[in-house]
Amino acid sequence: MCLLGNHGMLGFIDGTFTSPEEEKNGDSETKAKDQWKRSDTLIKGWIFGSVSQEVMISNELVGLDSACAVWDKLDKAYSTLPIDLRDEEMAKYVPLHRALLKGDWVKAQEIFNNDKDALTVKLVETGETALHIAIFRSKNTGLVKNLLEEINEESLLTLLDSNKLNVVHHAAAVGNTDGARMVVEKNPSLLFMLDVDGYLPIHRAIVSSHIKTFEYLVGASKEYIQHSNGVGYQSPFEGKVGVRLINLVIDARLFDVASKLIQEFPDMARGSDVNGDSALSYITDLPDAYLSGAGYNFYQRFVYSHLPAENNDLHDSEMNHDIENQESYKTKFITMCQRFGFIRVPHIKHLHEDRVKHNAAITLLKFICKEVGKKGGFRDLSKYYGDAFILAVQNDTPEAVEAIDECFPTAIWMTNKDNYSISQIAITKRCEKVYNFLVNKLEDKHIHKRTVDNNRNNLLHLAGKLAPMDKLNRVSGAALQMQREIQWFQEVKKFMIPTAVEETNAEEETPMTVFRIEHKQLRKEGEEWMKKAADSYTITTALIITIAFAAAITVPGGSSGNTGKAIYTKKASFIIFAVSDAISFFTSTTSLLLFLSILTARHREEDFLYRIPKRLIFGLGMLFLSVTFMIIAFSATLYLQFEGGKARILIPIATLTCLPIASFVTLQFPLLVELINSTYCTGIFAKQKGP
């Protein structure tokens, strides 16, 4: 308004400035008409630029012939009462509002009998009417039924709040399935009205995670689909609105429902919504929908692999007794587990649900790819699957990458906005699962060995760059982070040709030079982490050495005055003490030497791969043994002091012995396991296959 006022153009929207051809003195020149038309078109453009696409479509603004007509349309749709009048009207209907919230139909009916306008008037500032409140707030089906008997079918279409939500929108938003059913049966056209956000009631249901209401609205929309053909209505299964629906269903992880919808309405898989997002992009942008994003441990992977991928129970009719059919034995085993209730165990049930979800996601992904493939040639199709394929690579979901690659063989040549290929993306983003797929399953993997970017960086140069922080922080401790980075560099080095190690980029830097520059700070932090850890453990080992040595020269029970030998030499508990104390002393001494070697090491980049982690592993292992045997030696000493109550004292001593050992295992053993796993186990990379 300020813009129009400053330019003296308010007359174009309030009707003051009319077209010269409409004036009574029709002798205006053509030039004046053209000038008026240009100004009017300019103002229409300003108005269109300030409203959303959904508002333009729902109010049918595009077809209007003047800025004044557009303004009048918007004014009728969105104008509000003056503040004083609005407050006065709302205050008048406060008793009605309270009655509706309480579900008091007697009080409400009394008000309606005295004021028929109360049935359709807006009772609150957000524009909700009596029926909105009955459905959205109280969910009283009896109250809703009584209100519907008082309101005629046509009036239901005009009951919109300030965001243009009709009563079915409200029912969907709160999951009031019964209320939605009653309203739809009276006027099905409400199913196909868009709100200010471009949402149909069915969209509101799925966004609010009300699955039962959503399922009802799907069935009702199919049943009354003919009502969507009218002006101002929109089918939920067509166009951008339909794609938005399938995207929301996918986002809600209802993959089976999405598959059924696409089977009935294939175009939902081929287009894009108002934001430009396709169903293929949505399904590939859900890492948790695939096994690769689950992060299972060994036990979970084992159980997962033996669970059925379907949600329905296996029937005996599916079992054949053919001895040669080996698959039937696995099926019988699964069925037996179901009968005995093993799948009902909480953690197994959760794994089974994940298995079903992952299978449904892959099935849906392949189905969408199949439907997208029907649009035309591969060159034209790249704009439909390209972004989705890059998303799958960046999210490190090899299942999605493989599925798209099988359907669209040219997908492996796709690049992102930085002109990076999938191999370059996988390395720079540290997507190890996609990288393993690339080097072990793609037949054209060798072509990627010669890939360079605009700065002449080959893949080894990219491996030398610092990993993204979100990937780096998945590893605990700067030293292990440095080890992971070295592992990446060495793994890519195996994949590349030998001469790639000496190739230089535009800055005349070799891959190793890039690695040292990029990881200078991380190497320093890793060195500090290692030295602090070694220093802390050194203090502990020194104390154990002191205790073990003192215990060795001051034996429990003392020594014989005649022979100088220990009094309890022949007792089994004394032998246990002596052996345990000796082992504790020698292991703690070894541990001390290993930790001292870490403190004095050079800590070069390559030392973080094996040399330094190996010393820390053996140092921690020796420390664990020394603590364990020190406690055993101490317990044996206590046992020797209680000659008369051997049976009674043995149990509490054994119990207390486990306490410090268990504490040490709980606090330090996870670090030891992580070190061993990252240093000696297979780790994140699969073994590379030969040419």
From TrEMBL:
Identify the keywords attached in UniProt to this record, alphabetized. Membrane, Transmembrane, Transmembrane helix
Q: Which GO terms describe its cellular component?
A: membrane
- SUPFAM superfamilies from the xrefs? Ankyrin repeat
TM regions (residue ranges): 537-555, 575-596, 616-637, 649-673
Entry keyword annotation includes Hydrolase: no
Domain (PGG): residue spans on this chain: 527-640
Q: Does the keyword Membrane apply?
A: yes
This protein's superkingdom? Eukaryota
Q: What is this protein called?
A: PGG domain-containing protein
